[in-house]
Amino acid sequence: MEKESATYRTITQPSEEILYKERKSKFYGYAFPVQSEEEVKSIIEELKKKHPTANHVCYAWQLGVTDISYRANDDGEPNNSAGMPIYGQIQSFEVTNILIAVARIFGGTKLGVGGLISAYREAAKIALENSRIEERVLKGQLQITFDYEEMDTVMRFIKKHQLEIDSQELHLNCKIIISVPKNHFRDILSKLKAHHKLEIKVLS
């Protein structure tokens, strides 16, 4: 469980376009890294422009690591025949901060709900298989406030524990914001608080 809470999986860049065919219908699949719902909207609009003859552009997305939000959209296909099968692949591959979209161009033969579920699921799966998935370390942020004379102590601590500095203000009164891997967060926080001349604030 600790490993799950300390890391997450996502994709680093958009996948190549994939094509899955089922009884003359064409299903074009895509995977995109996303950070917001606004990004999703603009990508879907671009895909609809790219495929003007597509009858449906169905998709699913998931955002967040500890606080997860998601949506599945059938775009006019029968209820739960497209968006949810796509979302099922996001869950199966255990990825987040991702959008999977599938544009369907009708080939003249109806597939039925079962056929649609199978086709959208397969297109989403192939799009994910063609994506570069990487595991990232989940991090939290701490703010350290201290007098300039404590600079050496703070910098030695940061170097010793191989922590990342996100920002720093170095004056007579200094402020440094650091990123800490979640699986070491409590330990680092405890050690910093042991330095009584440092003021520590948890940011995330």
TrEMBL record:
<dbReference type="GO" id="GO:0005737">
    <property type="term" value="C:cytoplasm"/>
</dbReference>
<dbReference type="Pfam" id="PF01205">
    <property type="entry name" value="Impact_N"/>
</dbReference>
<dbReference type="GO" id="GO:0006446">
    <property type="term" value="P:regulation of translational initiation"/>
</dbReference>
<dbReference type="InterPro" id="IPR023582">
    <property type="entry name" value="Impact"/>
</dbReference>
<dbReference type="InterPro" id="IPR020568">
    <property type="entry name" value="Ribosomal_Su5_D2-typ_SF"/>
</dbReference>
<dbReference type="InterPro" id="IPR036956">
    <property type="entry name" value="Impact_N_sf"/>
</dbReference>
<protein>
    <submittedName>
        <fullName>YigZ family protein</fullName>
    </submittedName>
</protein>
<comment type="similarity">
    <text>Belongs to the IMPACT family.</text>
</comment>
<dbReference type="InterPro" id="IPR001498">
    <property type="entry name" value="Impact_N"/>
</dbReference>
